[in-house]
Amino acid sequence: MDRDVSRQRKSGPAGSPGAPSAGLETAPSDYAPLGRSLVVFVITAILATGQMYAVIPVMDAMASAWSASTSSLTWMASAFGFGYAGGFVVFGPLADRFGHRRIVVAGIAATAVTTLLVGCAPDLGLGIALRVLQGLTVAAFPPTVLSYISERIAPERRMVTTTAITTSFLASAVVGQVASQGIADAFGWRAVFIAGAVAFGIMAFALRAVMVADRPPHGASPLAAYRSIPKVVSTPGLRLLYLATPAVFGSFVAVYTGIQLGGIVENNQALLALRASSLPAMIVIPLLTPWLSRIPNAPRVAFALLLAALVALLTGILNPGTGGLAVLLLLFVAAITIATPAMVGTVGERSGAARSTALSLCTFCFFVGASLGPQLVGALIGSGFSLLMYVLAAVLLTATVLVFITRKAPSAPRS
After folding, report:
1. What pTM value is reported for the model?
2. How far apart are the C-alpha atoms of 290 and 303, rounded to whole Å?
3. What is the dihedral of CA 290, 294, 297, 302, to 10 degrees?
4. What integer best gives the mean pLDDT of the chain?
5. H-helix or E-strand spanning residue 25
6. Under a CB-based contact definition with an 8 Å cutoff, are residues 254 and 391 in contact?
7. Of the residues 61, 120, 205, 251, which has the maximum number of CB atoms within 10 A of its CB?
8. Strand duo 24-25 + 9-10: pairing
9. Burial of 320 (0-12, 13-18, 19+ CB in 10 A)
10. Which are the contacts of 50, defined by CB distance < 8 A and separation ≥ 6?
11. Rg, the chain, Cα only
């Protein structure tokens, strides 16, 4: 009998934070090695989600190469985001049926190919289509790795690991833009995608090496997981959270896109420094996880979203220079970095037996918001950066209210 199967034992209530979605716990001797797993997961998370943001610094160059308007290039970000979000709903349930490692490795290997194809696209139309495909293939990673963590990482280390991964998704906004700008300045915009394709190929091998071997496929049919989606969405404790979730990444992407397209900073070096100014928040917040986790997840989400709304409002009112904007951006990113893992934790707590499906829908909602963010910028930036920030403040405040009123809503059943 497979060692992984023979050492399974019953866990606590299915759907509790960190509990496997199938209601089974892994024996301590079969947990994945944390150190090397975390390094590979963080790098892959930054590389995967960084593809959404990598086009922001090269929009002008791509527009020139394809004889298109810069505003139309926002679809290169949104197209990826829609494919990315849609893929979460596809791959999360499939991973439960066929195995985490199989789905992740196949998806990242396929992304090496789709990323290379984007770099070879001859025009905007084909580029947009290929970005949807790229987003779809790379979507095999986020929901699957979150489910893998809940099953294959030791329970006492899951919150730290989840925070590190979700923070990496956010850090990719900075790392992806900085790397993209540096590569494009040296070798041209197509080199950004060629380099990404090579990196994805390397990470496919690394993921296969560090992830624990899959258990034999279980369950009657992967379609069973998809049939549970309407029930999950209709759960009172989840449906309002799903309405609030797009505001998190949507506002985050909109701020960075607005800085790029709004002409806030004219000098490329100053723009690079501004993008990097929020990195300290992405490093410090995961280190504060042991203390932040003492605050229940839902109140932590509401507080963080309220802080982000206030910072956005203050940014619109003050319309600060580069130095002031860097400070406000740091605070804004810190708030979003706190909100993201807490939102994942809140959904996990309320998802009952359908944890993997619920988390897939959560990540779907995150990146629907990330896809809509650039389009919001395209619609509003002509009226000024301040108006964009006022609208984002209103969106974030609405999300805060939605999270607050769900605090006593019933969760999904445990079985």
Report:
1. 0.75
2. 17
3. -100
4. 83
5. strand 24-25
6. no
7. 251
8. antiparallel
9. middle
10. 172, 173, 175, 176, 179
11. 20
**Is 358 a residue whose pLDDT tops 60?**
yes
Task: DSSP letter for 405, please.
Answer: H
The DSSP line for 47-112 is HHHHHHHTTGGGHHHHHHHHT--TGGGHHHHHHHHHHHHHHHHHHHHHHHHH-HHHHHHHHHHHHH
∠ CA(222), CA(18), CA(46), 5° rounding?
A: 80
Compute the distance between CA of residue 10 and CA of residue 127 in angstroms, rounded to an integer. Answer: 48
pLDDT in tens, 104-114: 999 999 999 99
Using an 8 Å Cβ cutoff, are 278 and 172 in contact? no
Q: Is 415 helix (H, G, I), strand (E, B) or coil?
A: coil
Kindly write down the DSSP assignment for every residue of 141-193, as one continuous string: SHHHHHHHHHHHS-HHHHHHHHHHHHHHHHHHHHHHHHHHHHHHHHH-THHHH
Provide the residue count of the chain.
415
